[in-house]
UniProtKB/TrEMBL annotation, chain A:
Keywords: ATP-binding, Hydrolase, Nucleotide-binding
Pfam families (UniProt xref): 6PF2K, His_Phos_1
SMART domains: PGAM
UniProt GO MF annotations: 6-phosphofructo-2-kinase activity; ATP binding; fructose-2,6-bisphosphate 2-phosphatase activity
UniProt EC number: 3.1.3.46
Superkingdom classification of source: Eukaryota
CDD domains: HP_PGM_like
Family: In the C-terminal section; belongs to the phosphoglycerate mutase family.
Residues binding substrate: 236-243, 289
Protein name: fructose-2,6-bisphosphate 2-phosphatase
Domain 6-phosphofructo-2-kinase: 17-228
InterPro entries: 6Pfruct_kin, 6Phosfructo_kin, His_Pase_superF_clade-1, His_PPase_superfam, P-loop_NTPase, PG/BPGM_mutase_AS
Record Gene3D superfamilies: P-loop containing nucleotide triphosphate hydrolases, Phosphoglycerate mutase-like
Species for this entry: Mollisia scopiformis
UniProtKB/TrEMBL annotation, chain B:
Keywords carried by this UniProt record: ATP-binding, Kinase, Nucleotide-binding, Transferase
Domain of life where this protein originates: Eukaryota
Organism lineage string: Eukaryota, Fungi, Dikarya, Ascomycota, Pezizomycotina
Domain 6-phosphofructo-2-kinase span(s) in chain numbering: 46-266
Gene Ontology annotations of biological process type: fructose 2,6-bisphosphate metabolic process; fructose metabolic process
GO CC annotation: cytosol
Entry protein name: Bifunctional 6-phosphofructo-2-kinase/fructose-2,6-bisphosphate 2-phosphatase
A GO MF term: fructose-2,6-bisphosphate 2-phosphatase activity
Length: 451, 540
């Protein structure tokens, strides 16, 4: 179907990019969560089918200086200054090449860009190539947050891999001090720049001279982000009566084994805290099976039902088994396997439709801290794809087994995943391409949320 | 005495608004409680009618007169309603006028800190009535957002307002429009105040300056927002910069910031025109070019619009209006050949033309190349479903109007962002949705709005409500005027539907007046037909 095909100009999800290309320029001292923000923004844009790429100047610099000490970042160190300048130039050159030859839409330049002259230089380069710039400054003086970021960096940053953690933290603090000497925040003298300045962990913000829709869309997303450490727990509902009979959709009750899972879920969640107990907010869909699955969780935890978390609407095929669908709507059955992401059930939804309706959920998830989501297979595939950067070809085929809890923790260099199994038997609801089986076990190659 | 007065206010109360025809902006309409219809771009529904778990919110405007507050409130309400959030604007000015009676102004010291006891009493009476309506809306009519359009100049007043709403379990979000750019101020003052008898026979520039001076005298104390404990958004110089203080922003507050990033408060016009016709039977996939007739149409349409704009300007100058040159006109088309080629007449004259791919028409799916009879025969159940909900129903593999509305969101925000006058040349289905947004039409009416080819529609944004005018393109071949040959020939729901044209000249009260006087366009001799209706409560 022609209109659903993403292309550079239409991507079918309500986000439209026209001819603009934007370079998002991160600004801020080290340990202010810049890389995390850059990663997340790229992930979000890709999820919405907008081509985005992060250009991390640190990666270019590491080619010339793999694990430099803090002195390297001293302004008086001429050699260090030269290497860092060359790294910035290489990154910007590659970025411009990417815009030109690969028709990228949004590049994120991840570096400190801490001086006015550096920012001016980037703007001039982009202006001369017809690329818009959007500067994003993360200004944060919250000591606790900076400390937790330093701890995070010393364990995950390639600059400190394999080093003594204590020494690494000390060196990193010295590096920050070197940057502080020359750091210039974005101020009145730069009013001609388009910028977003985030202060006090998002409590205060200034948005200046937004040029077009695409920029406003990026700013809107970034406004919703926070950089505090938190996790997201995902679970399907317990096995339902429809799961047992192999029917899709509907609003069935839990099976006896599904009830067992519901009873065990509180214990499973406690286990996932790994000793650090804290309350969660629980989100369910409005369907009986997710509400029933969440009902034994502590009463004092806040629970919200979201219509937007309801299972993908299978339209006329609701309540049918795959064999029945293949029998009654053979063309549809085939069309769906051809392009599962874009296939829309008659009178129902496609995965692409689901992604659009999940937008408020994703925004709310980004704004929130610790959330447990109890929802359905297709919805989990979409949410999981967002956090784990799964592409559209693969995400609708992921195996999302019943009766296990998945804990995701977004980190600066990727999302961490831990799986807790309830060890309660359940049918498999995974289905391979073309299969009409009532229940089918995933193959060895099937990618699974629970692996 | 008091009850009598209250009754009188109630009788004049802005709550009891008439329902407009689709020809008048419906942004202030009181929607039918029975109608459970979804809003044009609503993604899902909830039992309570409240979306995004955002609870109930009052958005409190802050700012001196002539800062575009009313325009911001109305535009925001339009956008939120479009998303399905039940929103209503409460203009304190309406309550002031209803209480004071026609032609009576508030006492001189009304806005003073040390106002006389009598003025304070009037002030409280007005505030009380407005506040009661806000609670009525939120508590008994399932309202989710109330927009409270007033000056709210003092920090102490704002703090206590937030406390009062919090007691009723309602969150508060302040929205200030702060302008210190003299040029913007004078332009606003000019566009709002030019018609007032006070400034008759005055040079418009002087009138604007005098008006601004009067505001300063009338409201001598104004404190811009700095409160660290309140939720606020400050729009500086018509959107050049936004600043916010986020104590507890929810999804909606962030969404509002997103919208405001695209809003400006400068006035400009929007025109809608159809694309010219093609010689060939135009299928969606064929994307045929303009035929000879189509080229003639494109030429005539361009001439008509350009002459119209010049004539309007001349008329304005004759009335003593601004002699400033016309705003530049930008033309948007879809990427479909017929719209692009229709715009060539403008391109040749040096106007800027932009192609927007998301403005492609409704995808017809299986209905492409099928006659109405064939559709009825092949898909009888689909036709039935379509009749019961022409807005949300999709024919197999086709798009619904709802899909189109969601796909057009960026266009809608770009539309708000555009500062030049704008001509949109598009397929009828796209015009319907965009018109539906600008004029706040009910979703169910959108699929049957009609845009005959011999009319250019002009939308004039007044701050209180938008107005639509029709500009006739004369001497067109009558064959090309009605319908659009490449439309999906879907059965039009029977009666009770309104089109932007059927309301012409009829009072707006009768929404259920059947409008089956199908579009035999009045080929009148009058050069330009202008339809303009004054809202009974329109400002000043």
């Amino acid at each position: 179907m022609e209109l659903a095909r993403p292309s550079r100009k239409t991507n079918g999800v309500g986000v439209q990019v026209g001819d603009t290309q934007v370079c998002v320029v991160m600004v801020g001292l080290p340990a202010r969560g810049k890389s995390l923000i850059a990663q997340k923004a790229q992930r979000y844009l890709k999820w919405l089918s907008i081509d985005a790429r992060v250009f991390n100047v640190g990666n270019y610099r590491r080619k010339g200086a793999a694990q430099p000490t803090a002195d390297f970042f001293d302004v008086n160190n001429a050699e260090g200054e030269r290497v860092r300048r060359a790294a910035a130039e290489a990154a910007v050159n590659d970025m411009i090449k990417w815009f030109k030859h690969e028709h990228g839409i949004i590049a994120i330049l991840d570096a400190t860009n801490s001086t006015k002259s550096r920012r001016r230089w980037i703007k001039d380069r982009c202006d001369s190539e017809g690329i818009e710039t959007l500067f994003v400054e993360s200004k944060c003086d919250d000591e606790d947050l900076i400390m937790s970021n330093i701890l995070e960096v010393k364990t995950t940053s390639p600059d400190y891999k394999g080093q003594d953690p204590e020494k690494a933290a000390q060196d990193f603090r010295n590096r920050i001090r070197n940057y502080e000497k020359i750091y210039e925040t974005i101020d009145e003298s730069e009013q001609d720049l388009t910028y977003l300045k985030i202060m006090d962990v998002g409590k205060r913000c200034i948005i200046n001279a937004i040029q077009d829709y695409l920029q406003s869309r990026v700013v809107y997303y970034l406004m919703n982000l926070h950089i505090k450490r938190r996790s997201i727990w995902l679970s399907r509902h317990g096995e339902s009566m429809y799961n047992v009979t192999g029917q899709i959709g509907g609003d069935a009750d839990l099976s006896p084994r599904g009830e067992q899972y519901a009873s065990k879920l509180p214990e499973l969640v406690m286990q996932s805290f790994e000793g650090q107990e804290h309350p969660l907010t629980v989100w369910t869909s409005t369907l009986k099976r997710t509400i029933a699955t969440a009902r034994h969780l502590p009463k004092e935890w806040n629970q919200l039902q979201w219509k937007a978390l309801d299972e993908l609407d299978s339209g006329v095929c609701d309540n049918m088994t795959y064999a029945e669908i293949a029998e009654e709507y053979p063309e549809d059955f085939e069309a769906r396997d051809q392009d599962k992401y874009n296939y829309r059930y008659r009178g129902g939804e496609s995965y692409r439709d689901v992604v659009i309706r999940l937008e408020p959920i994703i925004m709310e998830l980004e704004r929130s801290e610790n959330i447990l989501i109890v929802t359905h297979q297709a919805i989990l595939r979409c949410i999981y794809a967002y956090f784990m950067k799964e592409d559209q070809e693969r995400s609708p085929w992921l195996n999302v087994p019943l009766h296990c809890l998945i804990k995701l923790t977004p980190r600066a260099y990727g999302t961490e995943k831990v799986v807790y199994k309830a060890n309660i038997d359940a049918v498999s609801t995974w289905r391979g391409k073309g299969s009409k089986a009532l229940h089918e076990d995933p193959t060895e190659e099937t990618e699974s949320l629970a692996k | 005495m008091d009850t009598l007065l209250t009754a009188e206010i109630a009788a004049n109360s802005p709550r009891y608004r008439r329902r407009s025809s689709t020809f008048i902006d419906g942004v202030h309409d009181v929607k039918d409680e029975q109608a459970q219809a979804m809003a044009p771009a609503q993604l899902y529904s909830t039992m309570s009618g409240r979306l995004f778990h955002s609870g109930r919110i009052v958005i409190v405007l802050v700012g001196l007169p002539a800062r575009g507050k009313t325009h911001i409130s109305v535009s925001l309400s339009r956008y939120l309603q479009w998303l399905g959030v039940k929103t209503r604007v409460f203009h304190l000015g309406d309550y002031r006028r209803a209480t004071m009676g026609p032609g009576v102004d508030v006492p001189e010291d009304y806005f003073f800190i040390n106002a006389s006891a009598k003025s304070v009493m009037i002030r409280q009476k007005i505030l009380k009535k407005c506040r009661e309506d806000i609670y009525g809306w939120l508590n008994h009519e399932n309202g989710q957002v109330a927009i409270y359009d007033a000056v709210n100049p003092l920090s102490a007043g704002r703090e206590s307002l937030a406390k009062e709403f919090a007691k009723h379990d309602v969150q508060t979000l302040f929205l200030e429009s702060w302008v210190d750019d003299q040029k913007i101020l004078e332009e606003n003052a000019r566009s709002v105040k030019i018609s007032s008898p006070d400034f008759k026979d005055m040079n418009p520039d002087d009138a604007a300056k005098l008006y601004l001076k009067r505001i300063d005298m009338k409201i001598p104390h104004f404190e811009t927002m700095k409160e660290p404990n309140l939720n606020w958004i400050k729009m500086i110089n018509a959107g050049d910069q936004l600043e916010y203080n986020n104590r507890s922003f929810g999804y909606l507050a962030n969404r509002i910031v997103f919208y405001l990033m695209n809003l400006h408060i400068k006035s400009r016009q929007t025109f809608f025109a159809r694309a010219g016709t093609s010689d060939k039977t135009d299928y969606y996939q064929a994307d045929a070019p303009l035929g000879e007739e189509g080229k003639i149409y494109a030429e005539k349409m361009a001439t008509t619009l350009i002459e119209h704009r010049e004539a309007e300007r001349a008329a304005l100058i004759a009335q003593g209006g601004s002699t400033a040159p016309l705003k530049p006109l930008t033309v948007w088309t879809s990427t479909r050949k017929r719209t692009v080629e229709t715009a060539d007449a403008f391109l040749e004259r040096g106007y800027a033309v932009r192609q927007r791919s998301q403005m492609s028409q409704l995808h017809p799916g299986v209905c492409e190349k099928l006659s109405e009879n064939a559709i009825r025969k092949l898909y009888p159940e689909e036709v039935e479903k379509h009749q019961s909900d022409p807005y949300h129903h999709r024919y197999p593999r086709a798009e619904s109007y709802h899909d189109l509305a969601v796909r057009l969101e960026p266009i809608i925000l770009e539309l708000e962002r555009e500062q030049n006058d704008l001509l949109i040349i598009a397929h009828e289905s796209v015009l319907r949705v965009l018109y539906g947004y600008l004029m706040a039409c009910d979703a169910m009416n959108i699929p049957t709005l009609k845009f005959p080819r011999n009319k250019i529609i002009e939308i004039i944004p007044a701050s209180y409500q938008n107005e639509a005018k029709l500009i006739e393109i004369r001497d067109l071949n009558p064959d090309m005027i009605p319908g659009s040959p490449e439309d999906i020939r879907l059965p039009v729901p029977p009666s009770g539907m309104v089109s932007p044209l059927s309301g012409m000249g009829t009072p707006a009260m009768g929404i259920n007046t059947p409008s089956e006087q199908t579009m035999t366009p009045p080929m009148l001799l009058k050069p330009i037909r202008i339809v303009k209706e004054e809202h009974p409560l329109s400002k000043d």
